[in-house]
Amino acid sequence: MKAHPGRFGDGRRQRIGLLGGSFNPAHAGHAHVALAALRALRLDQVWLMVSPGNPLKPARGMAPFAQRLASARGVARDGRLLATDIEQRLGSRYTCQTLALLRRRFPRARFVLILGADNLTQLPRWRRWREIARTTPLAVLPRPGYSRAALRGRAASVLRHRRRRAAALHASRWTAGAPWCFVPAAERAISATAIRAASAGAGLPNEPTK
Ligand SMILES: Nc1ncnc2c1ncn2[C@@H]1O[C@H](COP(=O)(O)OP(=O)(O)OP(=O)(O)O)[C@@H](O)[C@H]1O
Ligand SMILES: O=C(O)c1ccc[n+]([C@@H]2O[C@H](COP(=O)([O-])O)[C@@H](O)[C@H]2O)c1
Q1: CATH architecture observed for domain 15-201
Q2: Strand 15-21 relative to strand 110-116: parallel, antiparallel, unpaired?
Q3: Which of 54, 86, 112, 169 has the CA that lies 20 to 30 A from 16?
Q4: Could you tell me if the CB of 52 is within 6 A of ligand 2?
């Protein structure tokens, strides 16, 4: 797996999907959304970008970073998926800052931000979310119990004029703001919260609780 994106021999810039997350722990749903986005958007790689600490989640119950990174590595079995600690190495916790730093560090890559539907609903609470959506194409993946509400939510409403089909996300040049899409994919009812709850119920030691 090539960790440093550049240009291909044909001059095309590499397309990198960024699936940011806590991965507390990582699970099959992460690999599923990463691969669904990769196929639908014809991406070259998807990075499972482990967050040093989601600014909207409490630190209590969050497993150590190294444990979450190892967990993300465990689900990144496909050679096109890469679990990475780059956000921690960049010293950033806010996605707007991470994206700016990544663009500076990898000027020849084209980044797409991948979100589950639950995070599209939450997007208006992120720092400088309108700037993120204006500068970075977004790919939203369905999630049981969230998809419908997300597509009727505030972010989808504010950004409605820039919604495109997944296959068209790379097709057009955009100057007035980046496009976004809802990727049609199977829903997977799996979450880190449920995994932690099951571990706690089984009385497993050293498992973080929410
Ligand atoms: N089953 C799933 N379907 C769609 N998207 C998912 C799924 N699981 C995780 N995601 C998305 O992956 C990204 C990282 O998710 P995260 O690491 O927080 O896992 P989670 O299962 O949502 O965790 P938690 O239950 O602790 O909130 C988010 O954008 C989230 O929406
Ligand atoms: O930048 C923000 O304000 C912001 C607020 C909440 C979440 N995020 C990012 O959203 C991604 C998903 O987080 P999580 O915890 O739901 O897996 C992860 O990359 C977080 O850093 C970012």
Answers
A1: 3-Layer(aba) Sandwich (3.40)
A2: parallel
A3: 54
A4: no
